[in-house]
């Protein structure tokens, strides 16, 4: 649970910093919460760059509202409240931040603005701020995007952060009854959107990849580097769900359709046949960074990152993201 303790030393220090105009102390006290606030904004927005922007907006609003902080709630609670409302204001102004229905049987919808979250940017404190894998994986983030913004805020505050209904109601300036009703509706929607065989998000948290997942990633990378289409196909479950974001129209829901698309797109033909791969993790999920060397280029250049959801030794979801020009992923641009 986020912030279960009573207001204390941090709050008193913060109030003194506000009264004295000590901007350096103000910055130190708020900055220590940056990573967890950014994860919170990411859950609300599903986009790493938007989450960065809204975290910065949170600090700007905190500075402007600094005189309103009286220490009745913990500093962390106050910052989360500001961050939540910054995200809601952002969503109110954007009409392109909702899932898009896909006209394919069983495909549902896709979140084209979805971006991966680099594990290196997750909170570091293992006691308080560690992010449960169940609530940062892409499937969970996508499911939350199907909630209307206010329901989304209630769900994240109550079921992810563990806030009591009264605190969530105060943050959103609604009644406890409204929070309770919104949470009930949100839970139904999220469960409907989560993939089959998915763990309940309130079950005990896991953080590390399994040996099985690591082995599949190694095989996936090896197949790419050897131009082994049959080896790649062998790793995929028949009902694979594949999407290449943010490109529209790439979502398919069978391994056969995915492979047909890759082949027609030129995979393993000249110009797309010299690969090097690096294992990584995003959203606490196994991933492979794919580097391509085209004829005449002495270097392998970062091309895509493939994020895998693996069940019983098979890839059941493969979400690709363009990785070039995204330094926040923490991947070298060339090999």
From TrEMBL:
Pfam families: Sigma70_r2, Sigma70_r4_2. GO terms for biological process: DNA-templated transcription initiation. It comes from the Bacteria. InterPro entries: NTF2-like_dom_sf, RNA_pol_sigma-70-like, RNA_pol_sigma-70_dom, RNA_pol_sigma-G_actinobac, RNA_pol_sigma70_r2, RNA_pol_sigma70_r4_t2, RNA_pol_sigma_r2, RNA_pol_sigma_r3/r4-like. Keywords: Sigma factor, Transcription, Transcription regulation. PANTHER family: ECF RNA POLYMERASE SIGMA FACTOR SIGG (PTHR43133:SF65), RNA POLYMERASE ECF-TYPE SIGMA FACTO (PTHR43133). Interacts transiently with the RNA polymerase catalytic core formed by RpoA, RpoB, RpoC and RpoZ (2 alpha, 1 beta, 1 beta' and 1 omega subunit) to form the RNA polymerase holoenzyme that can initiate transcription. Residues 140-188 form the RNA polymerase sigma factor 70 region 4 type domain. GO terms for molecular function: DNA binding; sigma factor activity. It comes from Micromonospora citrea. The keyword Transcription regulation applies. The keyword Transcription applies. NCBIfam families: PRK08241.1, sigma70-ECF, SigX5. This is RNA polymerase, sigma subunit, ECF family. Signal peptide: none annotated. Belongs to the sigma-70 factor family. ECF subfamily. Residues 30-95 form the RNA polymerase sigma-70 region domain.
């Amino acid at each position: 649970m986020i912030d279960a303790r009573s207001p204390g030393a941090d709050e008193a220090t913060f109030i003194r910093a506000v009264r004295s105009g000590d901007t350096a102390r103000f910055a130190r006290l708020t900055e220590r919460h940056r990573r967890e606030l950014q994860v919170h904004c990411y859950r609300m927005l599903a986009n790493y760059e938007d989450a960065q922007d809204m975290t910065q907006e949170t600090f700007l609003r905190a500075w402007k509202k600094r005189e309103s902080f009286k220490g009745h709630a913990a500093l962390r609670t106050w910052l989360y409240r500001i961050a939540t409302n910054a995200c809601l204001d952002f969503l109110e102004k954007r009409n392109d931040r909702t899932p898009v229905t896909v006209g394919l049987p069983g495909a549902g919808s896709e979140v084209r603005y979805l971006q991966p979250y680099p594990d290196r940017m997750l909170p570091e404190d293992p006691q308080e701020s560690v992010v449960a894998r169940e609530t940062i994986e892409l499937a969970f983030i996508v499911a939350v995007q199907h909630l209307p913004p206010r329901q989304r805020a209630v769900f994240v505050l109550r079921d992810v952060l563990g806030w009591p209904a009264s605190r969530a109601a105060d943050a959103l300036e609604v009644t406890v009854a409204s929070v309770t009703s919104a949470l009930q509706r949100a839970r139904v929607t999220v469960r409907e959107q989560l993939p089959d065989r998915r763990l309940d998000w309130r079950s005990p948290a896991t953080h590390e990849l399994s040996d099985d997942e690591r082995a599949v990633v190694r095989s996936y990378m090896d197949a790419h580097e050897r131009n082994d289409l049959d080896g790649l196909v062998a790793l995929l479950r028949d009902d694979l769900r594949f999407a290449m974001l943010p490109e529209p129209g790439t979502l398919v829901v069978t391994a056969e359709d995915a492979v047909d698309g890759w082949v027609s797109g030129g995979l393993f033909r000249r110009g797309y046949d010299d690969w090097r791969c690096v294992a990584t993790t995003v959203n606490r999920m196994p991933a492979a960074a794919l580097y391509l060397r085209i004829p005449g280029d002495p270097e392998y250049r970062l091309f895509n990152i493939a994020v895998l959801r693996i069940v019983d030794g098979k890839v059941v979801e493969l979400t690709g993201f363009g990785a070039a020009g995204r330094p926040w992923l923490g991947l070298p641009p060339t090999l």
